[in-house]
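Step 1: inspect the first sequence and its tokens.
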Amino acid sequence: MSAVRKSQLSEDLKALRAMTWRQRLRFVAAYYGLWIVGVLCGGALIVYLAVHIAAGAPEYHLYAVFTNTRADAGSGSALWKDFTEYAGYDLIDKRVEFDAASYFDYTRNQAKGNAYYNAFVTLSDTGTLDVITMEPEQLAALGQSGRLLDWNVEACAALRERYADRLIYYRPPEGEPIPVGIDLSDSLLVTRYHLYSEGCALGLSAQSTRLDSAADFIRFVLEG
């Protein structure tokens, strides 16, 4: 914790001691309410995922997370309906899951302490997640986590060739740049569904086994 933050916290504690309980509740709600809600929501999501996985996760055609957007893009949204209709998937035995309630930025302290990032890690490491979107600079930084697919791998050869002019790279301190996603700033995610206003990029989870479905989604937002 920085010296400035420690000093502010010390001042807040002094102020709280001089308040009544009702005043304290109002003070905490006003200055820390959003942080508390974020931590609780992120914690609840992690617990939900853990229970979900332990109980036997359902089969998916595609699992996508759209981070840092206020747009309605979750399961059941217009985006979800248009894509599932486009793809023609049988949704009886397998699901298409869209999550648009995730907020983290790896460019800020590697998202340490962010419950939404921890949820992303859980989804990625268990092979549940297929696709993640965010602004291009943020996606390039997220490549450092090792949880985005390196598009140099053979399994990604067709996608790499098709979208070579869109590749986004993570640039490690040493060695060659690593392609970790593609730029979709001119895609339907921006022009029709308005998920982002400052550009959009898409990465693939390093543990995904559903690259064909991810390709369907990319094709939809670029050509659908």
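Step 2: inspect the second sequence and its tokens, then contrast the two.
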Amino acid sequence: MDDIYHAVLAIDEPELVTTSNVPQFSKLEAAFQIPGLLNALQDVQTFEALGIYLDYEMDKKATANKKYGENHAKLATLLDLVEISSSHTMQVSETCFGNLFCMLSDDEKMRVAARLAFRIPVVQRVLIDAASGEVCIADYLKPFSESTKKRRLPNVRSLLNLIGSCTGEADVKLIASLRNVRGLQWD
């Protein structure tokens, strides 16, 4: 994965970190299920429908289902596994890459997702700065409200841990940078 990391380090101006591109999710794997779900249903889905399919509980409120579906669909969009379009409601649809992704084994999905996580601006910024020294993920979320920081911090940590869990002996520079990120638990 050092090859991807070198490409990230070469980015002149990484995208600005905003609340719209820092994911919030409950289970990373739920985002990986969305392409297969859309493929099986052969139709676009609303956030609420996705929430029901991904985490059905009889007593769960419609707003909770919608939020669950929305959060995981947005993560899947950041990974380029699905796309979200709006007409009168937000709808999640397949991408060609998402179709290919759902054909992979669970282990392959994790390895591919780790590589795709490099596309997320906050991941890029953390890793670029970690190449030079120790960093704290919370510093990249400073403009956010305290409640947003509290919800998003574990998610950024999860994405970086995912990347770390997919490194190999040859990923010397990436491993060194990940070790400069305080609070990671992948090695």
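Step 3: confirm your contrast with the notes below.
The longest helix spans residues 146-165. The two ends are 15 Å apart (CA to CA).
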